[in-house]
Design a protein that fits this description.
Layout (H helix, E strand, L loop, with lengths): L14 H8 L7 H7 L6 E8 L5 E9 L11 H7 L9 E4 L10 E2 L5 H14 L14 E7 L1 H9 L7 E10 L5 H7 L3 H16 L3 E6 L4 H14 L6 H15 L3 E7 L7 E8 L2 E9 L9 H11 L6 E5 L3 H6 L3 E9 L10 H18 L1 H6 L2 H4 L4
Parallel strand pairs: 3-5, 10-11
Antiparallel strand pairs: 1-2, 2-3, 2-4, 5-12, 6-11, 6-12, 7-8, 8-9, 9-10
Length: 386
């Protein structure tokens, strides 16, 4: 049974069967899961179960060996130990997709969420240890990461005894039907509106040329600039490796992966923003900048937020994790994402007070950043576990 789920990123289901359950959740879509399966460091799969009352439930999974996960944000052992919390072994099954940092439990529309969570929990825990990328057994841990509050509550109702650990705040910017001007009004503070207008004006006066491309025509620029940004924040990687990764990305994505390139005259681009538009939502995927050549004109916020926000028909920008303060100042709402250990006999069981203390301290650090962050937090989604 278990090995079959790792035959491909959808566990043997067709794209249509999988997307019927994903139901608009882009980072759990067949397209996205096939894309991230190209990355090294784990073996991607799709766990799915038929439900007794009819319908099906599913969740993306990945088999990883100890110290094998290349993405530091997915190394649950490091994440938990850095927070002073006990952790299951480093190797095992990640219950999530491997890029995007937003995971969902999936089910046929109309299926009860707790029933679906219970069936998936049983399947995850009974899954034989799969084979990792080097051919060795992945390990015994079963850890879900970047889950929404709704899915954590469903899994807890289905029998999970460990307390979820707050990982990060996920930023969403809602664009009202009135578009750009109405969006500015939702920011409330006249100071914040002036800030945004000033940043747009500076960018427009800086002499930049902005081009819209598809990734297959721009992956060399995206790879070079993304590598510069990653290196700036301490993540090592050669430009050649990034360029090759984005070439593969472009090969599978076709016209769906789009890029904004920012240049001065005929010089090579100084900045880029890679995004995917799915329905009325723009998912911001990567930015990159040649920092020494920037002109101090709020290049990041213009490329990543202000230009996409003015695209016709856009109602949401998914800005993802990191820098919640800057995103809150520009109107984002901040939703929690959680780690939930599903390993039988989890070392987090019985440590509810310690985990709650961590979660509360995490929330306190967020609210201490600014009144804008405090306002941006969706309190009902945080309070159950803080």
């Amino acid at each position: 049974m278990g090995a079959d789920y790792f035959t491909d990123p959808l566990g043997g289901l067709t794209d249509a069967e999988w997307d019927g359950m994903a139901d608009g959740r882009f980072y759990s879509s067949a397209f996205w899961l096939r894309l991230v399966a190209l990355e090294a460091g784990a073996v991607s799969g799709g766990l799915h179960v038929d439900l007794p009352g009819g319908g099906r439930a599913a969740v993306p999974v990945a088999a990883t060996e100890p110290d094998g996960m290349s993405n530091p944000h997915l190394r649950w052992h490091d994440v938990l130990t850095e927070r002073g919390l006990p952790s299951p072994p480093a190797g095992g099954v990640l219950v999530a997709q491997r890029r995007g940092y937003l995971a969902h439990l999936l089910a046929t529309p109309g299926v009860d969420s707790v029933d679906a969570a219970g069936a998936l929990l049983e399947a995850v825990r009974s899954l034989p240890d799969p084979v990792g990328p080097s051919g060795s057994t992945a390990g015994p841990a079963r850890v879900a990461m970047y889950l929404t509050t709704a899915d954590v509550l469903a899994l807890r109702a289905a029998g999970v005894r460990s307390m979820p650990v707050a990982l990060t705040a996920d930023a969403w910017l809602g664009i009202p039907p009135g578009g750009w001007e109405e969006w500015l009004e939702t920011m409330g503070s006249s100071h914040r509106r002036r800030r945004v207008r000033s940043e747009v004006r500076k960018f427009e006066q800086a002499g930049y040329r902005v081009e819209h491309r598809v990734l297959r025509d721009a992956y060399t620029h995206v790879g070079r600039l993304a590598a510069r940004t990653e290196q700036r924040y301490g993540i090592e990687g050669s430009a050649d490796a990034y360029i090759e990764a984005f070439r593969k990305h472009a090969e599978l994505a076709g016209d769906r992966a789009e890029v904004l390139l920012c240049s001065v005259g005929d010089e090579p681009p100084v900045g880029c923003c890679l995004y995917v538009r799915d329905g009325d939502t723009v998912y911001l995927r990567a930015v990159g900048f040649d920092y020494e050549r920037l002109r101090g004109a709020a290049e990041y916020f213009n490329l990543a937020y202000y230009i996409p926000a003015r695209m016709p028909g856009v109602r949401w920008l998914h800005a993802g994790i990191a820098t919640p303060g800057g995103k809150a100042l520009r109107g984002a709402e901040l939703r929690p994402l959680w780690l939930l250990d599903l390993t039988p006999g989890s070392p987090l069981e019985g440590r509810e007070n310690d985990v709650r203390a961590h979660n509360a301290a995490f929330l306190d650090r967020l609210t201490a950043e600014s009144p804008a962050v405090t306002k941006a937090l969706l309190a009902d989604e945080w309070k159950s576990f803080c």
